[in-house]
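Archive entry: two folds, one per protein. Generate the first.
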Amino acid sequence: MIVWVNGAFGAGKTQTAHELRRRLGRGWVADPELPGFGLQRMLPGPLRSDFQEFAAWRSGVAEMLARADGGREQPVIAPMTLVDDAYFAEIVGGLRAAGHDVRHVALQASPQTLRRRLAVRQWKRRDLWALEQIDRCVAALRRPEYAEAVPTDGRSIDQVVEAVAAALGLELARPALGPLAARAYRLRVQLAHIRVGALL
């Protein structure tokens, strides 16, 4: 099974994906940003663009997710904003056509919430670009082809994870963490993600 956690930048995809894996008690978070950053690093600065435009990224992500999913009983969780219809059809549609059980969920938040979340991360160059994508992403993810939708405004990560699990028919095997343990776990995830983002 492949679980694609979609959402605009700042919707909470990464934290949701890692907490979902933890509470499922099994699985693997496969981050599609990693090959994207690697492909960008092969180019000089002026030639770098949105890595989703690279055919190599789209085909590579689909191939790696298929390999990770092949014959295993562990869910593969991919947190990634994907709102271009053609790219969505190529990756998610292609995996489904090949027989993979791809379950898609779109984390939804208001533009105001997204801007507030991204504002605290503006020291990262990519997040300045992400701010410009909010309206485009929010509009796309409201369309029915990007269901299941899970609202995140006013919800904790635990509440979002529980809503995602219910929407996708997944059974959570582990309880939510206590406040201090949850804060430490979220911080570890955040720090790991910052190191990835620093490659840009």
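Generate the second and append.
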Amino acid sequence: MTDLSLHIPDTGPASDEAGLRDYWQLLKPRLMSLSVFTALVGLVIAPGGVHPFLGATSILWIALGAGASGALNMWFDADIDRVMKRTRSRPIPSGRVEPSDALALGLFLSVLSVVMLGLTANWVAAFWLAFTIFFYTVIYSMWLKRTTSWNTVIGGLAGAFPPMIGWAAATGSTPLDAWLLVALIFMWTPPHFWALALFVRMDYHVARIPMLTVTHGRDATRRQAFLYAVGLAVVSLATALSGIGGPLTLAVAVVLNGVFLKGAWDMWRRTDAEADADGHAAEKALFKWSLVYLFVHFAVFVVEAALHPYGGW
């Protein structure tokens, strides 16, 4: 098993004075936006409703918690980011932000977001936010990412918790339906990231990150992506038949999963030579569709909740 030295490189003094944009980039705004969106859906569709001000402040603290995770991840992964083509321009490896500043920002936002979510919403939601930050920073970034090809599967839990945190912020509880939202993102994460890993695989080779493409090869990665796509379809249909689903969710889920499975199947049946020849067209197509898939799937939960009361089946 490939292992990496766990250290922060000495990037030297910052090449330019860091600006607000650099600190914003530390928070991984794209990842934050996904967390905010899914957390908002969980909060909105939870039974009983929530006061708009409480809902808005809860989403703010969840967003800051997601940003804290991003800053701590960038602090710890500075050595990896420095050698990967798609990450070497990030604030720390480029020298615009000192690692110690990123660490301080991440810790400050972690404490602030968890405490404020507990005080303004409830401590159930605050506990799961704290656990998510810990899981992403320690379990995924510091351990799984550098030691095992299971990093994408197990580590995907960190990105799967936000809708349940939103639900907990509204209700103070985490019932089965909230966990189904977690399961949906959990099963979606491997094929989403493995499709990406297939067309940026050299980055992971250079950085010696044990992604499945590095440890088991591209054929195994395509096969596993398809199998997880099948599992994703099962979870998707389960959510459609649960209290958060309904006829519209079921119809949309059938279409979304049909396209997803077709894309994963097409990707699996290709050879490495075919993928190289067309610039990984199937892999890129599946990656892009996976983003559409998650957005539409969660959006339809909101529409379904507006059409009938919770548990309308």
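Annotation attached to the second fold: Confidence is low (pLDDT under 50) at residues 1-15. Residues 281-307 form the longest helix (27 residues).
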